[in-house]
Specification:
By secondary structure, this protein is an all-alpha fold. Helix content is 54%, strand content 0%. Helix 2 runs antiparallel to helix 8, helix 5 crosses helix 6 and helix 9 packs across helix 11. It is elongated, with a radius of gyration of 20 Å. The chain binds iron/sulfur cluster. Iron/sulfur cluster binds next to helix 9.
Length: 235
């Protein structure tokens, strides 16, 4: 086993995440494998919200690979210039659309090697497409998953490759496809980088992070509890 967590704890964590969100989905707006692929390529160093704003107009103009392959980089760039690295992304999106048309009849291939041969598509993007578009149990380790896997002790590792390998080893098969989404959403909204909201974390009982933030410093609300210090102040 990669980490020090017992299989029982791993099972409990994913049972809990599954109970909280039984049908997890990507937050990238897409209508088919092609629009998903483009959205994921555009999402590098950008937020899903930002990508969704950019793809609204882009997908209206080019809803499939053939239409996108017919666009100039400048035309694609006009839709996506609010995103980081937009010039490079525009170039990649047009080039990958052309390759899809030339090699795959305009369809997104259900094949890791063929996906990774497309411009701008690396292992992480291929993992997302294989999971979301084709229902495979892949886990794309982004910054959120990397943090959650290390903090909790689920799959500690110094590199994304190590963490992916560790997660694939410990996550039970029945949770594999959902694990990708649960861990991203957990890292994005609860186990945040600067201040994890452990006081409202549904997996805190099994998490091995030594610096859990068990008290909210925010005003008490439906998802917060007062720290002892705050209780003393308001007494
Ligand atoms: S208890 Fe805290 S550190 Fe552990 S997973 Fe939950 S939010 Fe993250």
């Amino acid at each position: 086993m990669t980490g020090t967590m017992t299989p029982e704890s791993v099972e409990a964590i994913f049972a809990q995440l599954a109970a909280t969100n039984p049908a997890p989905e990507t937050e990238l707006v897409h209508r088919d494998p092609f629009t998903l692929l483009v959205a994921v390529v555009l999402s590098a160093q950008s937020t899903d919200v930002g990508v969704n704003k950019a793809t609204k107009g882009l997908f209206a103009e080019a809803p499939d690979a053939r239409a996108m392959a017919g666009m100039s980089e400048e035309a694609v760039g006009r839709h996506i210039r609010t995103l980081g690295l937009w010039r490079n992304k525009a170039k990649n999106v047009v080039a990958l659309a052309k390759l899809l048309v030339e090699r795959h009849g305009g369809q997104v291939p259900h094949d890791r090697a063929a996906l990774e041969a497309l411009p701008g598509v690396g292992r992480k993007t291929a993992n997302v497409v294989l999971n979301v578009a084709f229902g495979e149990g892949t886990i794309a380790v982004d910054t959120h998953i990397f943090r959650v896997a290390n903090r909790t002790g689920l799959a500690p590792g110094k590199t994304v490759e190590k963490v992916e390998e560790g997660l694939l080893e410990v996550v039970p098969d029945k949770y594999r496809q959902g694990a990708h989404h649960w861990l991203i959403l957990h890292g994005r909204y609860v186990c945040k980088a600067r201040r994890p909201e452990c006081w409202r974390c549904v997996i805190a009982a099994w998490c091995q992070f030594p610096d859990k933030q068990l008290y909210s410093k925010r005003p008490i609300g439906p998802d917060g509890v007062k720290s002892p210090e705050e209780s003393r102040r308001s007494a």
